[in-house]
Amino acid sequence: MPEVWFTLKWPDGSRERCYSPSTIVTQHLSANTTYPLSDFSLRATTALQSASNRVAQIYGHPCSRAMGQLERINHQVAKFEQDSDPMVTCLSMSS
Who contacts 23 (Cβ-Cβ below 8 Å, separation ≥6)? Predict the structure, then answer.
């Protein structure tokens, strides 16, 4: 299963390299694209849950690494929810 690495820029300017076990993430996020925080959160959740489900279909168990990544993303999202108009940018995606 081809994995994808994607780099995010959070509202505070910090950057984070993230992991997906499946290319399905490219159907939900695009490089060089900025998303409102709530839209990004929904997209990331859908993408990583779908990626984990694909792993489960093939290997018989969900991808703990994808779920761990989603947990880290949700932690970051929570830090910025009270900000005025927070935006997240997907800087890059690579296989």
Answer: 2, 4, 95
How many other C-beta atoms can be found within 10 angstroms of the C-beta atom of residue 50? 16
Reported pTM:
0.93
Residue pointed to by tokens 């993408």: 47
**CA 90/CA 93 separation, integer angstroms:** 8
pLDDT, tens digit (0-9, with 9 covering 90-100), for 35-75: 999 999 999 999 999 999 999 999 999 999 999 999 999 99
* Alpha-carbon span 59 to 57, nearest angstrom: 6
Contacts of 72 (CB under 8 A, 6+ apart): 16, 18
From 63, 31, 33, select the one nearest 48 (Cα to Cα): 63
CA angle 17, 42, 73 (to 5 degrees): 30
In the chain, where are the structural domains located?
Answer: 4-94
